[in-house]
């Protein structure tokens, strides 16, 4: 096993050997893949967060996504409010600073929220809340095309990381790709944190993520993301240029029968500079009934006895969270 000290820093995993073999059903027999799998297992068990390098998405694209996001957030409020988020618009679009709440407390950030688009009525009453087109800014002009390309690449990358995680748990590479992920949903939060001139302004309060995997693309020159380790200490997630920070979410905790647990994290921007973070959330099917997968219940039978183990419909879980987050949206918008 990999013996890394996760008390003060997050593990760094070069996944290029996994990506080179990701379409080979016998990938587990490859020595490079086996090494990546061991590192993934260690990271997911011990901390739930890790840096991903060797992921194949160009540094230029990663940086361009952040640069254009900065350009959007620098616009006057009147311009940004042209794509204002509303409950009637499926909670998609721009929210001004202070609209978002985490655990009932106001967060100091602004954001654009996007979700995978789907046909009206596809998910019945549950899906109605999120129905509608994404609202992409018209300025910068190429932003929509850039982000749609980026989302496609993040979707593929997430699927391949999950194949490694499935091997790490002792399954086949494809355990998550049955009925749970035939039609994976995704969520994108494009977030801007204003620079501050005082300490410990909560950009985003402590929370776990709702879905399977998150890929975080953060500014290279400011440290703001903090991750809670097993000792209860907060570890700073210092940026590594060109990397993603990957973490596991609540649905993966359930699917793995509690072997991998989602980890609390928060954002405190103590920098006077404006900070941008683009978070891509890879999810199960919207209407998936999420419960521990049979293969992992057999391998880890007694691990998961909490009430979380009950079956959860992912879309309902997401909507409950969205409506709690934006409970004050009407008053503040």
From TrEMBL:
Keywords: Cytoplasm, Dioxygenase, Iron, Metal-binding, Oxidoreductase. PROSITE patterns: FE2OG_OXY. It is found in: Cytoplasm, Cytosol. The keyword Iron applies. Belongs to the iron/ascorbate-dependent oxidoreductase family. The keyword Metal-binding applies. Residues 184-284 form the Fe2OG dioxygenase domain. InterPro entries: DIOX_N (IPR026992), IPNS-like_FE2OG_OXY (IPR044861), IPNS-like_sf (IPR027443), Iron_ascorbate_oxido_reductase (IPR050231), Oxoglu/Fe-dep_dioxygenase_dom (IPR005123). One of its GO terms (molecular function) is metal ion binding. It comes from Capsella rubella. This is Fe2OG dioxygenase domain-containing protein. One of its GO terms (cellular component) is cytosol. It catalyses: L-homoarginine + 2-oxoglutarate + O2 = 6-hydroxy-L-homoarginine + succinate + CO2.
């Amino acid at each position: 096993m990999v013996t890394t000290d996760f008390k003060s820093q997050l593990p760094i995993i070069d996944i290029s050997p996994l990506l080179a073999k990701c379409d080979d059903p016998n990938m587990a027999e490859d020595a490079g893949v086996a090494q990546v799998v061991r590192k993934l297992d260690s990271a997911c068990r011990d901390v739930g967060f890790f840096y991903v390098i060797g992921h194949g998405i160009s540094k230029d694209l990663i940086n361009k996504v952040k640069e254009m996001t900065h350009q959007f957030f620098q616009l006057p409020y009147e311009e940004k409010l042209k794509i204002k988020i509303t409950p009637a618009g499926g909670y998609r679009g721009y929210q001004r600073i202070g609209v978002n709440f985490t655990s009932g407390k106001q967060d100091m950030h602004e954001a654009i929220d996007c979700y995978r688009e789907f046909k009206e009525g596809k998910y019945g009453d549950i899906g109605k809340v999120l129905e509608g087109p994404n609202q992409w800014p018209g300025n910068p002009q190429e932003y929509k095309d850039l982000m749609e390309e980026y989302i496609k690449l993040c979707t593929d990358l997430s699927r391949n990381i999950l194949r490694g995680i499935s091997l790490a748990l002792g399954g086949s590479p494809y355990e998550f790709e049955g009925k749970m992920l035939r039609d994976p949903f995704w969520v994108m939060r494009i977030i801007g944190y204003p620079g501050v001139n005082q300490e410990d302004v909560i950009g985003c309060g402590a929370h776990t993520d709702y879905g399977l995997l998150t890929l975080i693309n953060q500014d290279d020159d400011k440290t703001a993301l903090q991750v809670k380790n097993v000792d209860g200490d907060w570890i700073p997630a210092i940026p590594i240029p060109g990397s993603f920070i990957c973490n596991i979410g609540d649905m993966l905790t359930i699917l793995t029968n509690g072997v991998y647990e989602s980890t609390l994290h928060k954002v405190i921007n103590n920098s006077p500079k404006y900070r941008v973070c683009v978070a891509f959330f890879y999810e199960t099917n919207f209407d998936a009934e999420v419960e521990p997968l049979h293969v992992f219940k057999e391998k880890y039978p007694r691990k998961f006895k909490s009430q979380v183990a009950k079956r959860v419909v992912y879309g309902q879980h997401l909507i409950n969270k969205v409506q709690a987050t934006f409970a004050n949206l009407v008053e503040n918008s």
